[in-house]
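Minutes, project check-in
Item: structure for the 469-residue chain
Input as provided by the requester:
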Amino acid sequence: MGEKDFETLRILKEEGTMEQQVSLPEMLDARERRATEQRRLLDTFHETLLCFTMNIAGPVKNSERIRAGFEIGKKQLEDRLKAADIRWTLREEINEKTGNEIIYMLAQNPLSIKKMTSEIEEESTLGRLFDMDVLGPDGVKADREQIGFPGRRCLICGKPAKECARSRTHTVEELQKKTTQILDEAIREADAQEAARRAVSALLYEVCTTPKPGLVDRINSGSHRDMTIFTFMDSSAALYPYFQACTRIGRSTAALKPEETFAQLRRAGRRAEADMFAATKGINTHKGAIFSMGILCAALGRLPRRSWRSPDVILKECAAMTQGLVAGDFAGLTPETAVTTGQKLYLEYGITGVRGQMEAGLPAVLEVGLPVLREGISKGLSINDAGAATLLALIAATTDTNLIARSDIDTQRQTVTELKELLAQTPYPGREILEKLDRRFIEKNLSPGGSADLLAICYVLYFLESEDE
């Protein structure tokens, strides 16, 4: 069974009872309701009406898959309207078993709107499933031919759609199969792009958060002599394809056991490290983020888009993918074979580091970091200032092995104690306190890189849960 077969199984399983057949009378009633509502809105607003629906063959007009395709189209349409500074007077959306539908009332020339919608319909294969009707204030429908666009083409053969429909050239089963293929490919690509965009944005937000004690930020390079903020920008850009790949791996293996997804990620991670070192000329900027953010993107790939706004669901999936990671990676380790700082700390103190955090579902992120970030922003702080406080809270809530590697465990523990005392009095320290901490960390050559990776995870989850707010 191939990757696309597993993807189909996953979506069908998710759709479950949501996928219902619609009878002809139900479809006719839905069309009449739509026409009546359109007439009412035209009489009320005397503006151009834009109605977006999906052109779906067969008796099933709505499902998880179809709704996902509709959401992609809606986003493309609203992005184009916003880019043209076009605001809608009214927007009505209906999602029922008879289909997905959204109506906009626009104070615009109907032909200019028809040109925009026709461009969207022509720009991608998925656009061939979009049905964007534009009616002028007089109720007359604008045609593609009026603005120089050809008529719609058949999904299967590319000939004029009206001819194929009239002669019934293709069976409903053929059209359904092609529709499923188009939707699956479009959803897979849209999700991979969105996850990668969010991941890279989070890495850039993290490095730009200022001041950050001991870390590279917009003011200085912290305790690092070999890198600057521009090094991190180069590295972040180089990792975009990797985050896309991780999301695709998650999607293609979603019907398999979670650990199977993680096994494939490790191969992709090695390639990503090579890309990072090539971009930074051998400097390690994001090795930890390749691990943690890669797992997060794969978890997004394994989950339906509706779950992306639920941090607990996402992190639970991360935990499922990495069960047994600590035991597996440290199995048979002895003082003679321990080479890395992480291995030595595990043997001496039982510190599991980021592996243990990930296997537990990143509790530091879910229970500490994300709540601090949310609360700070809700209090009116900028995302920069809320993020700086979130970093301190994460350092205080975890055993950052980067701090130990640059000093010793006693220094790390003392740092945690001092930060807990500070945060108990001032949960969101001001710039003066942060700059003082930065100087102290630099003097001691401390760098909480592990906590910085967790801050980036907090940013991604915050972006996703607050989307469209």
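Outcome recorded: The longest strand covers residues 88-96.
No further action items on this chain.
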